[in-house]
Amino acid sequence: MLDRDAPVTLIAQLSDLHVVTSDTDAELHVDNVARVRAVVSSVVREDAPVDAVVITGDLVNDEHPREYEVLAELLAPIDAPVLVVPGNHDSRDLVREAFPTLAWVDADHASWVAEVAGVRVVGLDSTRPGHPGAELDDERARWLETVLAVGFDGPTVIAMHHPPFATGIGWMDDSGFVGRELFVEVLATSSVDRILCGHVHRPISSSVAGVVAQVGLSPVQHVALDLRPGAPVSLVRDPVGYQVLRFATGERGGEIVVHTRYVDTVERPFRPRWADSVAPPS
Q: Which of 129, 193, 211, 248 has its CA 20 to 30 A from that of 70?
């Protein structure tokens, strides 16, 4: 029997915003800023308000200070805490400056720990400065192990930019994940309930050391799904949106359910005639 009275926490995952300034000379395939604005507008209109928004990297496109100013304006309508990790398009220092209230670790890497309504969120900086790929060095592995060793009575989520698994899209996987073995070792001896990541601009799920890992949707263009060995670089303008994670704790321990919200599809919810015969929840 479902426990309808179990405490519920809602966390929205956004990823890969790639915010730009109006005078950018970057090659754009959609209006990045307009799409981010549409996603933010959808988040704040959710019927059940979210308790936090987690953004898994590539907040801006070119590590420019003015891009972070535009980002702040775009995120301003969100009343809930906004928790971010840097991506390979970000500057660690500028991300720290843009989000000063996060409990940043006193180290070169831009990682943190936060609690959101009974959910522990660990922001892990997976970036490798000067390189598009991921890295988990000894310092970050020790930090992560220490954080996860602290007891917590609730779900634990790791938010990071790079997926810690091979997606099968070769030209994206080729950037690599230095220290992935360390990450797996830490997970194998810790209690983690979900991994949230980005980088690939399309929804993907896998598992790492028995932990479900999910890549979030991007509001800009997506990497095309082409699993052929040696497939060329290919992008696609798929529908965009974000995920909403629903954390519930009841007698069975805990549940995490992930819903995908698409935006700008023109479709709106409607009530069919047969709904009149459906009894309301007790």
A: 129
Would you give the DSSP letter of residue 19?
A: B
Q: Average pLDDT in the 21-35 region?
A: 94
Strand ranges inside the chain, DSSP E:
8-14, 52-56, 82-85, 112-116, 119-123, 127-128, 131-135, 156-159, 177-178, 194-197, 204-208, 211-215, 222-223, 235-236, 240-248, 255-263
| Six-digit token string for 94 | 């500028």
Cα angle at 105 between 33 and 103, to 5 degrees?
60
Provide the pLDDT confidence category of residue 250 given band limits of 50, 70 and 90. Answer: low
**What are the chain's domains?**
8-266 (3.60.21.10)
The single residue listed with the structure tokens 């601009």 is 201
List, for residues 257-267, the tens digit of each pLDDT value. Answer: 999 999 988 77
Residue-level pLDDT at 252? 45
Give Cα separations from 180 to 42, 133, 162, 200, 214 (angstroms).
35, 11, 11, 17, 16
- CA–CA separation, 181 and 137 (whole Å): 10
Exposure string for 76-98, b = 16+ CB within 10 A, e = fewer: eebebbbbbbbbbbbbbebbeeb
* Helix or strand (DSSP H, E) at 153: none
Residue type, 141: A
